[in-house]
């Protein structure tokens, strides 16, 4: 992704304020083939919007999405179908995304028909192969979404994302609505499927402890901008951006006797209708300096793989 932005025109009925919401602002992000890139941040920071922009479920306002040397945003809608097949999404709430009046068989078979698999035996084979991968049975195919538990429904949501054999899946908070005991099952399923089918994931979550187990790298987002990106271990062991530090300290320690320096984020994030100038985090940052409200921090490479947007740091070293 290069300098991807999405602005929404929004009319806020409570304040009568009209404006442009800068949901995603100048995001530069590489997603490497075969990896899981975790994308974390508070709700409303633009994570889901970014995920949907990549799939062109919503059209970005500006920027480029480069996939196999093509800028996807330059491909006309009509010619985009083959790319749709390659890029899928798993939603947080599978129930809301599954048509309650259709059987699971219909729900899973429909994308195959849309994408031109006309032979019914081919469709049956693909269907059988896919339900087997996610742990559903033949009987399940004749049932309806409301007959399943949350975890089972998410298996259906995953099956629907997989049925076209995609390369890339945006997982948008896929376990956030599930019981903790079920979360691990679904995460493990996603990990197994990734290896088996050589999938690339963008894994969106507000919860760092969820992305930790599945991500190779983590990007932290605040109010529409990426603030830090690094390999997962590096984010946990050497977080640099004050916002990342704050997110990490909000995770309960596995051993409560081990006191961490807790940094509590005060207040809600500012409105994206009117984001703070300079570094967008400066209104909540304990380390803010004069320059922070004046100048947008540039991307600094601390190592080749660890990048941070904060005035405290310079390239390849610290302040
Ligand atoms: Fe804090 Fe300034 Fe860094 Fe922003 S740029 S995170 S306000 S120190
Ligand atoms: Mg969201």
Automatic annotation (TrEMBL):
Keyword presence, Metal-binding: no
One of the record's GO molecular function terms: ATP hydrolysis activity
InterPro entries noted in UniProt: AAA+_ATPase, ABC_transp_ATP-bind, ABC_transporter-like_ATP-bd, ABC_transporter-like_CS, Oligopep_ABC_C, P-loop_NTPase
Residues making up the signal peptide according to the UniProt record: none
GO BP annotations listed: peptide transport; transmembrane transport
Segments forming domain ABC transporter: 1-248
Keywords: ATP-binding, Nucleotide-binding, Transport
Cross-referenced SMART domains: AAA
Superkingdom classification of source: Bacteria
Stored PROSITE patterns: ABC_TRANSPORTER_1, ABC_TRANSPORTER_2
Keyword Cytoplasm found: no
Entry-linked NCBIfam families: oligo_HPY, PRK11308.1
Family: Belongs to the ABC transporter superfamily.
Name of this protein: Oligopeptide transport ATP-binding protein OppF
Source organism per UniProt: Atribacter laminatus
């Amino acid at each position: 992704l290069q300098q991807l932005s999405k602005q929404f025109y929004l009319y806020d009925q409570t304040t009568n304020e009209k404006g442009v919401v800068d949901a995603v602002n100048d995001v530069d992000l590489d997603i490497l083939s075969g990896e899981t890139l975790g994308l974390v941040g508070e709700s409303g920071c633009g994570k889901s919007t970014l995920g949907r922009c990549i799939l062109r479920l919503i059209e970005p306002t500006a920027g480029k999405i480069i996939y196999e040397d093509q800028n996807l945003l330059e491909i006309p809608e009509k010619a985009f179908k083959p790319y749709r097949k390659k890029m899928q999404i798993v939603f947080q709430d599978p129930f809301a995304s599954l048509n309650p009046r259709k059987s699971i068989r219909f729900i899973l078979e429909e994308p195959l028909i849309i994408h031109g698999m006309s032979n019914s035996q081919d469709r049956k084979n693909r269907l059988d192969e896919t339900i087997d991968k996610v742990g559903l049975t033949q009987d399940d195919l004749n049932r309806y979404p409301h007959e399943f538990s949350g975890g089972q429904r998410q298996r259906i949501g995953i099956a629907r994302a997989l049925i076209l054999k995609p390369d890339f899946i945006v997982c948008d908070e896929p376990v956030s609505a599930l019981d903790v005991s079920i979360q691990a099952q679904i995460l493990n399923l996603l990990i197994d499927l990734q290896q088996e089918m050589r999938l690339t994931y963008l894994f969106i979550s507000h919860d760092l402890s969820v992305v930790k187990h599945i991500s190779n790298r983590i990007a932290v987002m605040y109010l529409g901008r990426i603030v830090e990106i690094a390999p997962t271990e590096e984010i946990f062991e050497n977080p640099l951006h004050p916002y990342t530090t704050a997110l990490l300290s909000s995770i309960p320690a596995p051993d409560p006797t081990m006191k961490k320096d807790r940094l509590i984020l005060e207040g809600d994030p500012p409105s994206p209708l009117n984001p703070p100038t300079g570094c967008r985090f400066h209104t909540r940052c304990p380390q803010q300096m004069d320059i922070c409200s004046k100048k947008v921090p540039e991307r600094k490479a601390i190592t080749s793989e660890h990048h941070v947007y904060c005035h405290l740091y310079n390239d390849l070293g610290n302040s």
